[in-house]
Amino acid sequence: MVSDPYAHREASVSVSRLPFAAHDRAPVKSFRHEAFLYSGIEHFLAGTTAFVDNALDDGEAVLAAVAEPHASLLRQALGDDAERIEFLDVGRVGRNPARLIPAWQDWVDRNAFARGFRGIGEPIRMGRTSSETAECRHHEQLVNTAFDDGPAWWLLCPYDVAALPAPMIEHAYASHPAVVADDTTTCSPAYRRPEPGSPAVATEPLEEPPGRIHEIGFEMGSLGDLRDWVEKFAEPVLGRQRTADAVLVVSELAANSIKYGGGAGILRLWRDGRALVCEVRDEGVITDPLIGRRARDPDGLRNSHVGDVRDSRRNRTSAVDAMFCRPRR
User: 263-278, pLDDT tens digit by residue?
Assistant: First the structure.
C-alpha cells in the first residue's frame, strides 16, 4: 500500500531533475518497466519529452502509445523530432487492452537488433469504463511476464496523480518494478515478480455490475439458441456488424467451454456504459497468463478468437470495440 500517493502533486517539472534526462545513466541491460507519476499536462510533457530526447540523442528508436489529447500535445512539444519517433493509436488499439502486448511485441521484434529502443505507454487514464480499467490493470501486471526474459528495452508508463484515484496509483506501485515519483526513480516495495509456473489467476476481485445481469446456461445442444440470444441482446448496444462479430466470439468461447471446461457453461451479459460485457463460467482452467496476448498462440486451444477472449480462471477483455468478454471458472 502507498501511504499518500497524492504527495507527488507538487512535483517539480524541471527537466534537469528528471531521471530520464541524465546523459550519464547506465545502459539498459534488461527489460525496464517503470511507472512515471506526473501531475498535470506540463509535468507529463516535461517527463515524456526528456525521455524521448535522451533516447534520440543515444540513437534509440521510440514508440509512443498515448491517447489523445496527449498524443497531439506530445507531437507539438517535440516539434520536428516528432517525425523521428513512432506513434501508436492507443485510442484504437488500446480500446481492447489485450491487444497492447501484441502491439508492443511487434515493436520489440522490429527493433530486436537496433542500438536501443524505448516506449511510452499510458493504458490507464480517466474516461475508461470500469471493465476497461480492470483490464488495463491486468495488462500492466502481465507486461513484466511478457517481456522480462526478452531483449533489453525501456517502457515508461505515465500515471496522472492529479486525476487518477488513489487505488490506481497504488496499482502502479504493485505492477511496476520501479516508480518515478518526485522525479526520482526508486524500486517499488509493493511489486512482486510472478513466480515461474504460478497459476494465471488475476488477484483483483471481479465486481458485480450495478444493473441487471442477463444469464443463460448452455451445452452442445443449445449453442444455436445461445447465439440467437446474444444477437438479440447485443444489437441495440453494438449495431448489426459488430453484433455479428460478438456472436462469433461468444460462440467460440462457449465452444471452448464445452470442449475444455466440463461440457457446459453459464453466460452472463450486462452493459457497462458504452460497453457490452460478457462473462462465461465453466469448470476449465488455463494456466498460461499470456493466452490470447501473443501475435500467434501455440496450438492446443481453439485460438481463432482467443485474442479476444482470455481464460485464467477469471478473466475479462474486449472482444470487439465495445464488447468485453471475461471467461471465468
Answer: 999 998 887 766 778 8
Grid coordinates given for 207? 465486481
Rounded to whole angstroms, how far apart are CA atoms 25 and 321? 41
List the domains of the chain with CATH numbers: 5-187 (3.40.50.300), 214-328 (3.30.565)
> Is 103 within 8 Å of 88 (Cβ atoms)?
yes
What is the side-by-side strand order in the sheet with 117-121?
A: 86-87, 61-65, 117-121, 154-160, 32-38, 178-181, 184-187
Q: How far apart (Å, rounded) are the C-alpha atoms in residues 65 and 329?
A: 33
Eight-state DSSP code of residue 303: -
The amino acid sitting at 105 is Q
> DSSP characters for 57-69?
HTT-EEEEE--TT
What are the residue ranges of helices labelled H in the chain? 40-57, 70-78, 90-93, 100-110, 130-147, 166-175, 223-238, 240-260
188: part of which helix (H) or strand (E)? none
Which has the closest alpha carbon to 30: 196, 193, 199?
193
For the entire predicted model, the pTM comes to: 0.75
Phi, psi at residue 36, to the nearest 5°?
A: -110, 105
- Compute how many other C-beta atoms are within 10 angstroms of the C-beta atom of residue 21: 18
Q: Please list the ranges in the chain whose pLDDT falls under 50.
A: 1-16, 199-203, 205, 297-324
Residue of 8, 2, 4, 53 whose CA lies nearest to 160:
8
What is d(CA 94, CA 47) in angstroms, rounded to the nearest whole number?
22
Cell numbers linked to 327? 471467461
Rg (alpha carbons) of the chain, rounded to whole number: 21
Select from 272, 247, 252, 240 the least CA-distant residue to 129.
Answer: 272
